[in-house]
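Morning run. Coffee first, then this:
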Amino acid sequence: MAGALLVAGTTSDAGKSVLVAGLCRWLARQGVRVAPFKAQNMSNNSMVTFDGGEIGRAQAVQAAACGLEPSVRFNPVLLKPGSDRTSQVVVLGKPTGVASALSYRERKAELMQTVLATLAGLRAEFEVVVCEGAGSPTEINLRANDIANMGLARAADLPVIVVGDIDRGGVFAHLYGTLALLDAADQALIAGFVINKFRGDPALLEPGLRQLRDLTGRDVLGVLPWREELWLDAEDSLSYAADGVVGRPAPPLGSQWLRIAVVRLPRISNATDVEALACEPGVSVRFVTEPSRLADADVVVLPGSKSTVDDLAWLRRTGLAEAVVAHAKRGLPVLGVCGGFQMLSRQIDDRVESGAGLVDGLGLVDVDVEFAVDKTLTRPTGVVFGEPAVGYEIHHGRVSRRGDLPGLVDLPGGEVEGVAAGPVLGTHWHGLLENNAVRRRFLTWAAAQAGRDGFQPAADVDFAAARQGQLDLLGDLVADHLDADAVRRLLDSGAPTGLRALPPGAS
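And here it is:
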């Protein structure tokens, strides 16, 4: 088996990322040397690679499905939205400036060359490359400059599978319309469909599947069932609903729950930091967007932000800033991560990200933060709560002054990172709570700080194993519910010739 294909979606969050991860896992378990690829991602959920670059977190998870370390080659272009109109542009792992939607178009010809060269390199090294599209391939206003969907498929001659989310409703219209609005040359590469998140008896779908095949000349290659266990590592922060519970919390081992409120910032980044907490029995993790939701919280988390100063202003406008400060002053635990840590500071000097200059922080820790032009991208190691830990850092803001405060992380060489100031903890480290022993120590500390004597942390939750279990489940879904022979034919031979072209795109 050799070749490459592209998984496109009828919409954002239709299931492209999970299908790519499932295909990668399925192939890797057969001994196939497979790699993931997403030409252009737009997400503030990112990861630092071992070669010191930054990629979308979904591609790091897909790499894990392949048994590979994350690499900048798997996501050569990453857009990190800082506002509704601008994004930081990361190319091969390194930031290259900020662009508006219009100015970014002018760079696409150059970026396409980077994308194609990177994909060609992967195809020369691996037997199979499973590519993921971005959003929908039928954004007809953007097609002329597309480098992630049909523009990539045409340039690299990739067969395309289109996945649709039946849970949203209207999946047959979505699949048919996605195909029909493409021009004839694009339609020639659409080789089949996949339906995602189906609940119920598959026999009920059969009449629709037959009609779709009759109307389009293309088969539905599989119907993937809804599985509620699949919630880790959401591709985009928009997947996290405001005031929504994270994960599927198991009952407590002791007599009390530990209630954790995570502030759902408008430009939240690396929201996945709290997912490890949601794997623990008796821990309820909820995203919140207004102050009353903090009234009965035991722990408040201020997560990362792509726009620290702007999100801090939002905290103040909504009354959440006052509620967070009041929570800490009652002696209840607050954890700030990256941008959230910066918000806890006495003062922020930001002439880089927002251009706002000096801005007052929440004043909960005696540190000052200054933004630097160069982005910190590291995978550090240290000791937290007496336990060895690893993490990763992605930030422009740096601590420029710290008072006489103990650090949260003891670094090699005797230096410290972050702060531990009574009930308030702050760190620039993402992924800190994915360290099992550190997470258990944090939960024990937080429960004691909050007076939750009846909460009992579990001794056996392994977050890395939980992630691997989800990847195995995705591989099982592909193996059990996808037409394996059809997928192999697409990888070996590309899209079939003579596929029907539909109007209006073909007219």
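The mean pLDDT is 93. Good start to the day.
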